[in-house]
Amino acid sequence: MSTVTNPSLYSIRDVLLLSQLLHINGIKGPQELDSASNDSINTILTEWKQHKTVQLENKVIKVNTKAQLKELYHKLLKKYQVESTEELANFVYFARIEELESDISQYKEEFREVLNRS
C-alpha cells in the first residue's frame, strides 16, 4: 500500500475537507473522478494542500497525481463504507462533530479540575 494513499494517515478533518473540495468541483463519485481533467485535479489538490486547516497543523499532504488521488478516494470510500462523495462528506462531517464534542467535554472537565484546585 502506498503510504501517500493510506487512509489512516488522514484525519477526519483532512477527509472532510477533501470530500468538500471534491463535491464543490463536481466530483460526485468514482466516475466523475475518472473523467475529471488534470486541471481540475490539480486545483483540488492545491486547494487541499494550501488550506488553512492543513497549514495550521504543519501537515504535508503528499498526494500529487490523479492516480494517487483516485487510489486514496477509493480507499476512503471503502474505509467508510460509502459509495459517493456526498455520502463520504456526510459520514466524516458527523464523525468530526463527535470529535469536537468529545474535545469540548474534555476541556470542560479540565477547566473544572483547575477551578477546584483554586
UniProtKB/TrEMBL annotation:
It comes from the Eukaryota. This is Uncharacterized protein. It comes from [Candida] subhashii.
